[in-house]
């Protein structure tokens, strides 16, 4: 994960979060037991709670990685795009635009977000689903981060959201694997965003952001629309749509990269 991806986590701290009863720090298993009570109060079944939380342990590597990643992003825009938007990725992205043209057209009609923006985000986040989606057990990662007192309410909320994904039947627990802060799927949604913005666009009754390309791309567009995306509007720095992309990632350089990549995909 890049430090830019960390920005979405750090800036989420400025948002209001509910108050949870589980106390951070102290004995880890006591904390997990308190989170199990929180989950049950939130309507999560005992079966899901037991299968997810029984035997869960701390992951010291998660905390070590988190501490290493803290700090400001120090690359220029030119340096960053040179590592993220090369000729090969542009060529693949243009092929994806053609391959999924009908799907992307339907998504644009419903959500107002142009195909090149959606495909640019898809490419940057997971190399169009071909890259590493993360291999870390999300429940263990989130429980570890929630127990750490620096951002406990944020990650307690994310842990409950992850359990809700399993409860809804969107993903089985074995597929609840992701990145260092619990991001999931081909466009790396936090569990709370998965619950809030996820769209069942393939019509199978579940929101699957790991395997279903229609769900992945439509959910990405839904996030932007909900954040205030204006159909047909400009998306470069200074525009309303550039601000709407703050819900995706608050780092200006990352949003500029999305716009740059989208322009290249559109032949501009």
What does this structure look like?
The chain has about 270 residues and is an all-alpha fold. It has two domains: about 120 residues, Helicase, Ruva Protein, domain 3 (Orthogonal Bundle); about 130 residues, Lysozyme (Orthogonal Bundle), CATH 1.10.530. Helices cover about 55% and strands about 0% of the residues. It has a two-stranded antiparallel ribbon. About 5% of the residues have low confidence.
In short:
Residues 28-235 form the Transglycosylase SLT domain. With 268 residues, the protein is mainly α.
Write a concise keyword list for the protein shown above.
268 residues; mainly alpha; Helicase, Ruva Protein, domain 3; Lysozyme; 2 domains; two-stranded antiparallel ribbon; 2 strands
CATH architecture label name of the largest domain: Orthogonal Bundle
Distance between the termini: 28 Å
Spatially, the strands of the biggest sheet line up as 1-2
Helical residue percent?
Answer: 55-70%
**Percent in strands:** under 5%
Order of helices and strands: HHHHHHHHEHHEHHHH
- CATH C-level class of the largest domain is Mainly Alpha
Shape: globular
What's the helix count? 14
State the low-pLDDT regions, or none. 6-17
Radius of gyration: 19 Å
User: How many domains make up the 3D coordinates?
Assistant: 2
Content-based structural category:
mainly alpha
CATH topology of the largest domain: Lysozyme
Largest sheet features: 2 strands, antiparallel
Mean pLDDT, all residues: 91
* Number of separate strands: 2
